[in-house]
Amino acid sequence: MKKIFSPIYLTALLLTFVLTSCEKVIEFDGDETESYMVMISKPESDTPWKVRLTESRFFLYGDTIATIKDASVSIEVNGRTLNSNITNHGNGMYDLGYTPQQGDSLTLHVTTPNKGTMMAGCRIPHKPIISQASCTYDTTHYTEYYPDTVQSINGDITVKLTLEDPAEETNYYMLRMRMPSINYNYTTESYDTIWRYTHINVNDNVLFDMDATNELFDIGSQDYYGTQILFTDERINGQTHTITFNTSIYGLEAGHPLVEVFSISRDRYLYEKSLQAAGEQDMFINLISEPVQIHSNVTGGLGILGGSAVTKIKID
User: Fold this and answer.
1) Which residues of 249-266 are buried (b: 16+ CB within 10 A; e: fewer)?
2) Which CATH class is domain 31-123?
3) Of 170, 179, 237, 291, which has the most beta carbons under 10 Å away?
4) Per-residue pLDDT tens for 96-116?
5) Where are the domains of the chain?
């Protein structure tokens, strides 16, 4: 679903917020410019665990974000300190020398000489169960073949996935779709395959409240439209539920699309949702609204340690 804003609708929307919003004063004395340690780590099952360490930047300053080069890092797995081979790869990126597994409880400690210590913990969830998956192309798409089996595909894809949600527990999910695109490399005079995440549109009245206003003005919703779709099992707890979504493809493609269904930790879900909300803020509305605060589960600093496990489905 495309976001199309008409000038009349934008004006009406802006006036509505001006006339109805409650004014809230946020005190700021100009002295709160101290930087904090920041960790961003999204460990995934069966994938090497990494973290990026930086310092926060005062929002009125235009400085580049400083990375942490002298951190002392340690990890715990299931309550036990792990003597892993932690490697600093530069630019604030550290390889923690461990590959998490489903069900692991992880704790990360970071200490620097000037900033002290920060820590966070998370649990790696179990992979979501997808019992069925199917894909259909519309009848209007066409394919052009090129040398070396390269082909250009144009049209719409509709995908259906059947999710088996575990009962008596709260689960958080993330849905994405990757497309293998062909890119011509002029240096080597050959074709390269590049994987990219594509926008998908989920049509599901159970998982989401489909906003009639959005449908009327065709402005979309980040709840069910974007390169990653976030949802919980609040409305499908313990049930089998079929999710339907579609996307459009244009240009050179190669191979099969890949659907990724993630189970994610609660903190990872809240972090991604708050990032999404911050990105949704319209520049006009920003003038009269309070900025979105990004979720953090780090003690002694800022950032996120949020786990995930993914089930990947190749779409024929």
Assistant:
1) beebbbeebbbbbbbbbb
2) mainly beta
3) 179
4) 999 999 999 999 999 999 889
5) 31-123, 129-285+309-314
